[in-house]
Every structure is written in C-alpha cells, then in structure tokens.
Amino acid sequence: MASLLPETDSEDELPNGWEQRLTFEDKVYYVNHQQKSTQWTHPLTGKRKRVAGELPFGWERQILEDRTVIYVDHTTKKTTYTDPRLAFAFEDKDVGTDMTQRFDASTTGDEVLHGRDLTGKVAIITGANSGIGLETAKCLASKGAHIIMACRHSDRANDAIDYIHESLPKAKLEALICDLESLESVQQFVDQFLSLQLPLHMLILNAGSMLSPHRLTIDGYETTFQVNHLSHFYLTKLLQQKLIDSRPARVVVLSSESHRFSTMSIETFSQEWVSPSTARNFVSMMAYNDSKLCNVLFSNELNRRLSSHGVVSNACHPGNMISTGISRNWWLMRTLFAVVRPFTKSLGQGCATPVFCATAHELDDIGGLYFNNCYQCLPSKTAQNSDLSASLWLLSEKMIENGIKQLKSQ
C-alpha cells in the first residue's frame, strides 16, 4: 500500500544534544547544543531536508510579542513550539525530476492531499459534474480550494454541487457553462470567469469524449478532436494571462495510455488527419487515441512556452476503463466498462494522479512530464516529438482563428 506521507528520516534519531529547526523558507537546519553550532545536513544521514510549503489543515503559526513562534492546532485546541511539518520533512534534492515514488495505483486523491491546506487556491475543472472531474472537485474542495466547475449542462452541474455539499457544506463551488463543442461557449465561459476577478492557480482539463460517431461541431470540426483537444487549447489560451498573473500556477491535461496506440506522426500530421471532414476514413477509437496524443503534445508545448512565466503543465493518465460517463456513446463499451468495473480503479483512485499533478510539492516549477499512478513515466516516442508538438500548436491556432471567423460570418 502506498505511503500517505512523504518519506522522512523519522527513524533516524538525532544524537544527544541535537535539535532540528526550520527557517522561514521551510528549510530544515540542525542545532548542536553541545558545540553551539548549526548545519544544514542531518548529522547521521548527511541529507538536506525541507518541509511542505503550508501548515497542515487546521494549523496556524503565531508570532508572540517577544518574537516566540508557536503553532496552534485549532482542531484539537493544542499549542506547541514545534512546527508540525517537521514530522514529515523530506529530502531536498537539487534535481527536481529525481523524485521518490510516494503513491501508487491504489492511492486515492484524499491520500495525496493528506495534511494539505488549499485555502485561497482557485481551480477550474472542465467536466466537473461527473466521474473523475467530480471526484477531483470534491477532493480539492475538501482542503479549502475554490472550485469553478466548467460544465456543459447547468442542471447537472447544480446536481453535482448539491452532491458535494451533502458531505462538505462549506465547500466553495461555482458552476459556469462551458460547452466544449462550441468555441463561442468557451469564450463566454472565460468572460464569466474573468468577471469574478479571481486568481487561477490550477487549470485541470478533464472533460473528454470517447467513441463518438463522426459528427462535426457547430464550428465545423470533428467532435472528438474539438472536445478533447481544440476547445481545451482555446480555453487555456484565453486564460493564459490570468494563469501568469496568478503564478505559480499549474495546468493539468488528462490524457490516456491509449495515446500510445495513435498512428499519427510528423509525416502524416494534418488538419484532415486530426479532424476529418467526412466519415469515409473515420474510426472512432483511433480518433480518441489521436486526441489523447494531442493532449500530451499540447501539454509539453504549453510548458515550453509558459514555464519561464511561472506556469507549468503536465499530462497524466488517470487509469484504465474507470467507470465514468466517457463510455456513454456506445452501448457495447458501456457494457464492457460495467463488466470490468470490479477490477479497475475507483473514482477516488482515478482522481489521485490529476490531484497529484495539480498540488504535489515535488512538482513545484516542474512541467513537461507525463504521469501514471502519481509517478513520472515516459510517454510514447511520438509524444516526445517537439516538432510535432509545435506543429499541433500552430495548427490549433489556425483552426481556432478560422472557427471564430466562420462564427462571425453567420
């Protein structure tokens, strides 16, 4: 079973006369009272340590008039001189991507957020009214985050809010309409969000469509491609400045291991490939695979363009055949999902990797990666092609421009 907390050196007792303390920059240092000296490294292991950036949920740091620092647990009504985060100090490594695996396939989103306080953080989650999106919203809201639920149907969004409020009556939740089959709806959603004058710390691109028959959206593009990639691309572009102004900020793009089965390449890439205008050469499963490859390519290119501005992006795979609404378009797939349900991840486990990518401290300032089971893994070779990711970005911009022109001409 996965550990619920970062790896620590708690089993390595300090020698007699030693004490560990924290700087206000959250770095651990060690005091040798016998020699009246301090050092950054653990006297036994030689490791440098740090702690998570915020106190556990319910804790507050207070500085008294005599400059004494105390820590108050408002849940238990207890006060201590010891920073509670010291119990969970973890190694401070120079190489950010050399991370220890703390979680696995059995981990839930609640376990990822154990001890975290997200008060003051704002997250937009697309497709938040059901499935993994709903579970992600509930998980983040339980730790104090303000959730903007970007949903296609207002009644379903309101039902989702009522569902979360049943167990979290004080959760900060708002629903705004965002139909990913319409670029105009995406624009209207962004206008409404910006009018709220909120920051944006997490943009979680969760909504998706699978196995849809060939159909063009109102903008003239194939539905699977527009819902899974193009409208999310447009949404992110419209929110780009807000993300930068709110930095540090993160974008999480939900992809799938099925991206590995895409046959798209830099040689075959074209608008007709990703968004076929007719059903003649259209295969719904291949369209889904291609769109999931686009998710990884987009995340990588987005990170390349925005990471220097304090915004990082990572793609992730939530799990295989989790019981969500994504299989709604074909009765056979709905049946298959029902059959395998006892052997797949729960929704709580399915949201763990997106939640990890959105909040984990070890990913501070780290992006352009792909995650499965809360751990970095390499995506397909095609997904790592920087020329293809740049080509997709340019084509997406062109398609959005043409789609908006078509809308204005109507």
From TrEMBL:
GO molecular-function term, one example from the UniProt record: oxidoreductase activity
Record-annotated membrane-spanning stretches: none
One example of a Gene Ontology biological process annotation: apoptotic process
Endoplasmic reticulum recorded as keyword: no
CDD domains xrefs: WW (cd00201)
Subcellular location: Golgi apparatus; Lysosome
SMART domains to which the protein is assigned, alphabetical: WW
SUPFAM superfamilies: NAD(P)-binding Rossmann-fold domains, WW domain
Record-linked Gene3D superfamilies: 2.20.70.10, NAD(P)-binding Rossmann-like Domain
Coiled-coil blocks: none
UniProt key word Oxidoreductase: yes
InterPro entries from the UniProt entry: NAD(P)-bd_dom_sf, SDR_fam, WW_dom, WW_dom_sf
Family: Belongs to the short-chain dehydrogenases/reductases (SDR) family.
Record-given protein name: WW domain-containing oxidoreductase
Protein's organism: Medioppia subpectinata
